[in-house]
Each structure stands twice: as C-alpha cells, then as structure tokens.
Amino acid sequence: MRRLPSIPALLAAFFVAGCSHAPPPKPFAQVPQAVSQAPAPLRLRRTNGVGSYMAESYEGQRTASGAIYHDASMMAAHPTLPFGTHVRVTNVTNGRSVVVTVVDRGPYRKGRVIDVSRRAARELGFLASGVAPVRIEVVR
Q1: What does the DSSP 8-state code read for residue 31?
Q2: Alpha-carbon distance values, 29 to 22, 26, 39, 62 (Å)
Q3: CA nearest 51: which of 132, 139, 137, 138?
Q4: How many angstroms separate the CA atoms of 92 and 5, rounded?
Q5: Distance CA 100, CA 134 (A)
Q6: CA 22, CA 91: separation in Å to the nearest integer?
C-alpha cells in the first residue's frame, strides 16, 4: 500500500512550487498623459449671450484650474472651454472688447455664458450694471 506524504512535506512542496518561475505580473496599461487630460475639442468658436462678472468674495481663492483668482487679472469662468483657452469677450452694446483666460467653471446662473473678472468687466463697461450682452470668440 502506498503511503501519503506528511503535511510538512506537502507544505514545503507547495512553497517551492509557488516560488517557481512564474511570469511577472503585467503592468497596468499606461494611458498617455495627453489623452487622459486632453480637453474636449473646441466646438465653440463664437457665441452670443449674457456675461457677468465674478464676485469680490472670490478674491484670493483657488479656481477650478488651480490658479488663484485676482479681481485685477484678466480671467474668466466658462462652463465647457478648456482651462487656459484665450477668449475675446466683446460687449455688443458699446463695442469694447478684452481677451481673458479661462481658469474656472461657471457661470451657474441660467442664461449666462461667461463670468469675467472685475477688471475685465470694468474695461468692457458693465461693472455698474453687473451684466451685459456679450459675444465670445475663441482666440487660441
């Protein structure tokens, strides 16, 4: 009759078999950095709507892009354009225009298409009224 090996011998056999030449685990698929953080294609080239400006309470706060907001800068918030996009905003009432950089998301009020910094609103001529009809054009 055949005799079964002892438990310590079986454990040693399993341990040695587990340490054999198994293939190394495959690394996770590397997603190229440009693909994982690439913005959506710029479909918006020109649009009209109502523009407003960001409240003073945002001064010194970090924006969605990580930049620090300053009232005296030429920054803007747009709901879909990629961060860093330069946009020409024109007040259609008086013809004044400025170029701002998208650094935040917003505006969140229905019917608004862009929030600009206080400096941009001053240069566009709607700081007193708070809102104005504007045309937005992507510069680059």
Answers
A1: P
A2: 20, 9, 21, 33
A3: 132
A4: 91
A5: 13
A6: 68
Maximum Cα interatomic distance, the chain, rounded to a whole number of Å: 105
Counting runs of H as helices and runs of E as strands, what totals does the chain give? 3, 6
Domain 45-138, CATH number (from 1.20.1250.20, 3.40.50.720, 2.30.110.10, 2.40.40.10): 2.40.40.10
pLDDT in tens, the chain (140 residues): 566 667 766 666 666 665 555 555 555 444 444 433 444 455 557 899 999 999 888 899 999 999 999 999 999 999 999 999 999 999 999 999 999 999 999 998 888 999 999 999 999 999 999 999 999 999 97
**Which token pair is 30?**
């590397």
pTM exceeds 0.85: no
Q: How far apart are CA 129 and CA 58, in angstroms?
A: 19
Q: Which residues pair with 134 in a beta bridge?
A: 49, 91
**Domain ranges within the chain, ordered by starting residue:** 45-138
